[in-house]
Amino acid sequence: MQIDDSFYDIYLSDWDFTRQSIGVNFGTLSPYTTTEADLIKKLTKAKRGRFITQMYAGVCAIGTYSFGMVVGWSSPITYEMLLTSSEGENATSIENIEDDHYAWIISITALGCCMGIFPAFLLLEQIGPRLYMILANFLLIILWGVMAIVTTYSIFMVVRLMTGFAAVSFLICGETILTDCTTKYYMRYTMMMFNSSMVLGIVITYVMGGLWGKSKTCTICCSVCAFHILLLYFAKDSPVILYARNPVEAIKALAWYLGKTNIQLKVKQIKKQHERRRLESSSDLYKKYLLSSKAVLKGTLTVFGLIFFEVSSGYYALLFYNVSLFREFQHKDSQYKVLGSIYFGVCLWIVTVISSYIHYPIPCGVKKPLMISSILITFNLAASALYLTFMEPSIDSRTHLMVPVILFGTFIICFEAGLSFYPKVFLKDVLPDQVYPLIRSLITFFHWLMIFFMLRFFFPVGRI
User: Which pLDDT belongs to residue 173?
Assistant: First the structure.
């Protein structure tokens, strides 16, 4: 591999920057006069890397915000659109659809996400996450424009399917860039931005749809996608993905994110991982041996089980259907629908931010948070079922809202305590690097397929 002289100039120019930034001039200190405090300061700086460019990796959070807007096109937005958007007397117009069709409108987005999993993972390795997100944004701009003027049910369903297909790439590509370009110290803050932005997109779209309607909401969604394209233009691609095509560009990209004096160990790890994956994964026999090993099968089946219980908890029904606490008023006054959406979003956003901060770095392993989260969710769902079965029909929700409010808030806390986060960590820990991309794509596909079936068949709209 040939490295030009400009590459070394980058490192020489950054040495002065590092000395000034940590307040120690190592060029004027000999090994005999350097104190232990100076070495600790230098070592701490090297571990953390450059703060500003790592935070720029948080541009991926704009992508999760766009994904949140796609999910947010549900109740009460869709109800408002069903009642106000259609013109004419066409039997297939959006205005004339029934509850069963409405369930399809909600769940079809999850089906689109399911269909977009394998293309996203395939193109991620071929063209890189940055370029793939740019292409997905262009597609979403077109889809939002079509959705703003569509008046027929069939076209609307196709657009909803395609928005899920395009938007799911933001989750996959965003996680890849953050993992490859952020040190563990700053991963806490970038993942806080990444996770909370999706919730913020959902909530703001709820409110915009309830207050402004379809056209203005679609215009704002297009503007967010255009702004995301502009930010991605100045960002660097994932150095891990770039290394297979151009090692020099990969090192420069890593230096841009982490700081040029902090990447030597990371470069060695990327090179070692690339060579190992290239040599070992090229053998079909080796792949079959890994996929059929007991450790891989046991870990994969365990994660499948965790995903099944995660989806069955009903968390994603809250995201897509936006179950309103003010059910008696939801057909009388849009003010209560917006108020319920705001409460839903504020609770979810606060808990997401706090849980993302606590989970990085992982404080007490994976097993304990998963067990605690599952047990607490079980008790919460049992209490909710008892309340809805025996108490809810005889209680006026205008004066007794505290019980569902408490149940709703504790459910979100219990879910974010472990079940929303640690299945991915567990999968990464138990699988070797050679088969991790393949198993991860299968797990993600199964995840969104389960969400689709849950949204379509297990939650009748008439009960919401």
Answer: 92
Mean pLDDT of 1-5: 43
What's the whole-number mean pLDDT along residues 32-36? 69
Return mean pLDDT, the chain.
Answer: 77
Sign of CA dihedral 105, 416, 355, 166: negative
pTM for this model (two decimals) = 0.81
Closest by CA to 82, choosing from 176, 235, 261, 209, is 209
The count of residues in the chain is 464
What is the C-alpha separation between 464 and 462, in angstroms, rounded? 6
Decide: 411 and 384 in contact? Cβ < 8 Å: yes
Rounded-to-integer distance, Cα 225 and Cα 227, Å:
5
Question: Looking up tokens 């066409």, which residue turns up?
Answer: 90
Handedness of CA 65, 68, 73, 76 (dihedral sign): negative
- Sorted by where each starts, the structural domains of the chain and their CATH numbers stand as 55-235+283-463 (1.20.1250.20)
